[in-house]
Amino acid sequence: MLAIRLPAQIEARLTNLAKVTGRTKSFYARQAILQHLDELEDRYVAEQRLTDLKAGRSASASLGDVLNRYGMDDRD
Fold first, then answer.
1. How many angstroms separate the CA atoms of 24 and 15, rounded?
2. Triad 49, 51, 45: Cα angle to 5°
3. For site-directed labelling of 66, which of 6, 38, 59, 74 has its Cα 20 to 30 A away?
4. Cα 28 to Cα 13: distance, rounded to the nearest angstrom
């Protein structure tokens, strides 16, 4: 179970959308979460990796190194 608090203006828009379409507010909240969760995860993981890189807790690799590591170098 999930309970969220929304700004009044967003709550009103969601209520109106549900009323006009005959669907529940929960339906639309679920749809929004499912649609954007991958993007949010990618963003926060990328931000954490950048923080780790700047702090010296991880290292970068060149594109050539990555391609070689996975057998994708087609320069042969």
1. 8
2. 35
3. 38
4. 11
pTM over 0.70: no
Note the pLDDT tens digit of each residue in 31-71. Answer: 999 999 999 999 999 999 999 999 999 999 899 999 999 99
Q: Find how far residue 73's CA is from the centre of its chain.
A: 30
* Predicted confidence (pLDDT) at residue 75 exceeds the cutoff of 70: no
Residue appearing with tokens 């042969």: 76
Query: Cα–Cα distance between 60 and 34 in angstroms, integer?
Result: 31
Q: 38-70: buried (b, 16+ CB within 10 Å) or exposed (e) per residue? A: eeeeeeeeeeeeeeeeeeeeeeeeeeeeeeeee
